[in-house]
Automatic annotation (TrEMBL):
<dbReference type="InterPro" id="IPR024084">
    <property type="entry name" value="IsoPropMal-DH-like_dom"/>
</dbReference>
<keyword id="KW-0479">Metal-binding</keyword>
<keyword id="KW-0560">Oxidoreductase</keyword>
<dbReference type="InterPro" id="IPR050501">
    <property type="entry name" value="ICDH/IPMDH"/>
</dbReference>
<dbReference type="GO" id="GO:0000287">
    <property type="term" value="F:magnesium ion binding"/>
</dbReference>
<dbReference type="InterPro" id="IPR011829">
    <property type="entry name" value="TTC_DH"/>
</dbReference>
<dbReference type="Pfam" id="PF00180">
    <property type="entry name" value="Iso_dh"/>
</dbReference>
<keyword id="KW-0520">NAD</keyword>
<dbReference type="GO" id="GO:0046553">
    <property type="term" value="F:D-malate dehydrogenase (decarboxylating) (NAD+) activity"/>
</dbReference>
<dbReference type="InterPro" id="IPR019818">
    <property type="entry name" value="IsoCit/isopropylmalate_DH_CS"/>
</dbReference>
<feature type="domain" description="Isopropylmalate dehydrogenase-like">
    <location>
        <begin position="4"/>
        <end position="353"/>
    </location>
</feature>
<comment type="similarity">
    <text>Belongs to the isocitrate and isopropylmalate dehydrogenases family.</text>
</comment>
<keyword id="KW-0464">Manganese</keyword>
<keyword id="KW-0460">Magnesium</keyword>
<protein>
    <recommendedName>
        <fullName>D-malate dehydrogenase (decarboxylating)</fullName>
        <ecNumber>1.1.1.83</ecNumber>
    </recommendedName>
</protein>
<dbReference type="GO" id="GO:0051287">
    <property type="term" value="F:NAD binding"/>
</dbReference>
Length: 360
């Protein structure tokens, strides 16, 4: 059966990088004879234009329409001058994440050729790990409240929620990922020395899960020193798993340490495939450069690569990765986009990568 992908470019540079991402996916599909349907009927979904025209970011019935797809390939959303971000994001991307129970947020932290690493003395190969973030519960609950507002007795409370199912399922995903990698190493982010109920529970579930993965080596660090190790000794890591808050911090810090926050991808994953997963670049709609044709398409293309990898098309995913690396390393200044110091365009870099996918 064909892999069915709903293509949602969204706003700003999402619309510019998406065609490059699609061209690369099509090149990979053609070369490896993959049966992938890229459905482009959603061009005005999750756009601020649509919101201004109709009063909502998504049409009614969006959930039923998207539910049968295997994945959503998503560009970016947001036109902050026209529509407040909380409306555009909460009316689209956040709906997808919640309604489709995308309880894993997955980001690679990999030092790529051709990208200046902000850490000293690191070479390609030194930094190569994944951050796995719990994406549905934990610190980001809406349980709590404000008492005695406006008085000097004012109190605010927000509870952390950790369910056994919620904690176990993200740990299982992370352990499976670690087991699939050569190093087979997992690091758990904790803070059980300070947060005395939920974090010891996290540790306990992690130790329990580890019993089922004898071949995976496990360590844990408190989040404060863990952030320091990300910067000082990133080669320690292979798969790093964290709660919603800790994972949020680590999944920005990790790519930032490789200088690749502008080109990195992200997966919002429902591992069972009950609902579609969503693959997107980390960056937003970049209104400051939208319409100029100079957006770097690598984040979008890499997100497509992650999507193929997620669905088990390993050969195609490997070639896409190699094409991205080769283009960044030796594409040349006429091909590389201005954010990486070149004089190329979104199309020159995207087209170059698509060509490499055909012939590497
Ligand atoms: P942004 O990621 O859109 O831009 C930050 C800076 O990085 C800008 O200077 C931009 O030009 C540059 N940049 C980003 N992607 C680039 C690329 N592919 N090539 C070259 N340069 C690139 O973040 P910002 O400015 O905070 O947000 C702009 C809008 O995007 C807002 O409406 C925000 O809510 C939305 N946003 C959406 C996200 C999503 O759809 N997942 C994620 C982050 C922001
Ligand atoms: Mg974040």
């Amino acid at each position: 059966r064909a892999l069915r992908i709903a293509v949602i470019p969204g706003d700003g540079i999402g619309q510019e990088v998406m065609p490059e991402g699609l061209a690369c996916l099509r090149a990979a599909a053609a070369r490896f004879n993959l049966d992938i349907e890229l459905d482009e009927q959603f061009k005005d979904w999750a756009t601020c234009d649509r919101y201004l025209r109709t009063g909502s970011m998504l049409p009614e019935g969006w959930k039923e329409t998207l539910a049968p797809y295997d994945a959503i390939y998503f560009g970016a959303v947001g036109m902050p001058n026209l529509v407040p971000d909380h409306i555009s994001l909460w009316g689209s991307l956040i709906q997808f994440r919640r309604e489709f129970d995308q309880y894993i947020s997955l980001r690679p932290c990999r030092l790529m050729p051709g990208i200046a690493c902000p850490l000293a003395n690191k070479k390609v190969g030194d930094i190569d790990f994944w951050v796995v973030r719990e994406n549905t519960e934990g610190e980001y609950s809406s349980i709590g409240g404000k008492m005695f507002p406006g008085t000097d007795r004012e109190v605010v409370i927000q509870e952390t929620v950790m369910s056994r199912i919620g904690v176990d399922r993200v740990l299982k995903y992370a352990f499976d990922l670690a087991q699939s990698r050569p190093k087979k190493h997992l690091t758990s982010a904790t803070k059980s020395n300070g947060i005395s109920i939920t974090m010891p529970y996290w540790d306990e579930r992690c130790a329990e899960m580890a019993k089922g993965y004898q071949d995976v080596s496990v360590d844990k660090y408190h989040i404060d020193i863990l952030t320091a190790w990300f910067v000082l000794r990133p080669e320690l890591f292979d798969v790093v798993v964290g709660s919603n808050l800790f994972g949020d911090i680590l999944s920005d810090l990790g790519p930032a340490c490789t200088g690749s926050i502008g080109v990195a991808p992200s997966g919002n994953i429902n591992p069972e495939g009950t609902w579609p997963s969503l693959f997107e670049p980390v960056h937003g709609s970049a209104p400051d450069i939208a319409g100029k044709g100079i957006a770097n398409p690598v984040g979008m293309i890499w997100a497509g690569q992650m999507m193929l990898e997620h669905f088990g098309y390993k050969e195609a995913a490997d070639i896409m990765m190699k094409a991205i690396e080769t283009a960044l390393e030796s594409g040349g200044s006429q091909v590389i986009t201005p954010d990486l110091g070149g004089a190329g365009t979104c199309q020159s870099l995207g087209g170059h990568i698509a060509n490499l996918i055909n012939k590497l």
